[in-house]
Design the sequence.
């Protein structure tokens, strides 16, 4: 049963507040900006047009409402845990308390895959978008260094992906206070660009473009919601920051739920204006927001939108890398990975080796490995984490009703169930190949735990000492 040894909640909190804890430097505003930075990226600048053209038509508005509500179910569960357990590691740390060490490792290993692939996929997307922007100025990278390793296409390394990963790693090394300020600035500029699109675009809305409103029927709305759901899922990275928040019991629920609310409003507003400006059938393009502005001859605003898209993708990559570094830190501090990875700098208490490991992983994946087929693994990993956290809230309510909860999920026997139902529905609709790769990764992680993690677990060693 020692495979399922559970980490007491007070032990976790002592870890986070002791000498091996991270610097507490963030507030509710920083957390909100972190959440918006993670969620508003390719979803709003690319997915809005694709979902409208291929799935929902103008009823994409309803798709984003439904998917936002579904995501809110999981967000409420994260908010309850984050207010109770202000420690790094997100779903990994929560499951260590509720389900035990083996399950925590499985989930942590799953999240390593999620964040690692997300970093690489977003870095590759950033590179492609930035190169398109360069072409507007007549600049072109040599083909050999323009994309990941694919000799058939004449490409060998994606240089721009390595550059942005290196730059963001350097920002993370500067400390959480400095890096969160930089993220705040980028997110505010990004929101400003989106608001500019809405304000300019609303004058070119033609209500006739909203008819028919539901060209693909309600089934199209549901299909669009399933796709749009994946545009929201970055918010879980916010919970990785709980150890670095000054007042986590108060600020974590505010940051998680406020960021999701802002993103939902922005997605819906952009969808309303976008489908009102351009007939939905014309929106199946790589840059639908900029395309809509060019469609109405507002090319100068389209230029600003391109800048917003670059910043949008940059902040998504930044938050994904941040979440990965804190995950490595939490798992290593528990001894399930080498404890040296959890070493902090003396001045800023930054997990330097976790950042370096994240930098190496993201650089190798994004620079050399074509990740198109692996991108869905990011989704399955996130959905799995959502399900575990949602179940964990109910289990802890039953087993430990005495724990002080600064934030409680309302209708606790309904909302977590709806979160599990919606996430489970999306998981079973992923491709079989995605499930096979997910299970292979799961198997590799199980071997690593049995060979290394079980024997080096800090909790296990502590329990052995007490029993001697």
Sequence:
């Amino acid at each position: 049963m020692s495979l399922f040894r559970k980490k007491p909640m007070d032990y976790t909190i002592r870890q986070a507040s002791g000498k091996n804890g991270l610097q507490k430097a963030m507030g509710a505003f920083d957390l909100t900006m972190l959440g918006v930075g993670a969620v508003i990226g390719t979803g709003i600048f690319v997915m809005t047009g694709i979902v409208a053209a291929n799935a929902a038509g103008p009823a994409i508005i309803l798709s984003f409402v439904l998917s936002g509500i579904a995501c809110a179910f999981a967000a409420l569960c994260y908010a309850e845990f984050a207010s109770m357990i202000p420690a790094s590691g997100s779903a990994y740390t929560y499951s260590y308390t509720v389900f035990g060490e083996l399950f925590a490792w499985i989930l942590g290993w799953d999240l390593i895959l999620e964040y690692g692939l997300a970093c690489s996929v977003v870095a590759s997307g950033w590179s492609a978008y930035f190169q398109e922007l360069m072409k507007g100025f007549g600049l072109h990278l040599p083909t050999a260094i323009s994309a990941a390793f694919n000799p058939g296409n004449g490409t060998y390394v994606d240089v721009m992906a390595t550059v942005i990963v290196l730059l963001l790693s350097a920002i993370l090394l500067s400390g959480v206070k400095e890096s969160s300020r930089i993220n705040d600035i980028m997110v505010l500029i990004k929101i400003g660009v989106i608001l500019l699109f809405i304000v300019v675009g609303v004058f070119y809305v033609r209500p006739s473009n909203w008819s028919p409103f539901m060209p693909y029927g309600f089934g199209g709305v549901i299909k669009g919601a399933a796709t749009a759901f994946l545009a929201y899922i970055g918010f879980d990275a916010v919970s990785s920051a709980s150890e670095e928040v000054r007042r986590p019991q108060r600020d974590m629920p505010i940051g998680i739920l406020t960021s999701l609310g802002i993103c939902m409003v922005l997605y819906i507003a952009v969808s309303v204006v976008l489908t009102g400006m351009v007939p939905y059938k014309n929106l199946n393009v790589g840059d639908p927001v900029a395309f809509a502005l060019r469609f109405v001859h507002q090319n100068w605003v389209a230029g600003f939108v391109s800048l917003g898209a670059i910043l949008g993708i940059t902040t998504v990559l930044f938050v994904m890398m941040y979440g990965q570094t804190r995950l490595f830190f939490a798992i290593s501090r528990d001894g399930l990975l080498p404890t040296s990875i959890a070493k902090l700098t003396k001045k800023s208490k930054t997990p330097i080796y976790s950042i370096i490991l994240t930098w190496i992983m993201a650089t190798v994946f994004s620079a050399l490995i074509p990740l198109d087929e692996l991108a869905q693994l990011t989704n399955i990993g996130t959905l799995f984490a959502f399900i575990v956290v949602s179940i964990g809230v109910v289990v802890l309510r039953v087993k430990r009703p005495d724990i002080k909860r600064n934030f409680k999920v309302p209708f606790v026997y309904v909302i977590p169930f709806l979160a599990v139902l919606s996430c489970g529905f999306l998981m079973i609709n992923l491709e079989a190949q995605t499930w096979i790769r997910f299970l292979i990764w799961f198997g590799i992680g199980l071997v690593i735990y049995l060979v290394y993690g079980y024997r080096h677990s800090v909790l296990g060693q502590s329990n052995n000492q007490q029993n001697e």
About this structure: The longest helix spans residues 101-135. The chain has 17 helices and no strands. Residues 2-467 form a domain with the Amino acid/polyamine transporter I fold (CATH 1.20.1740.10).
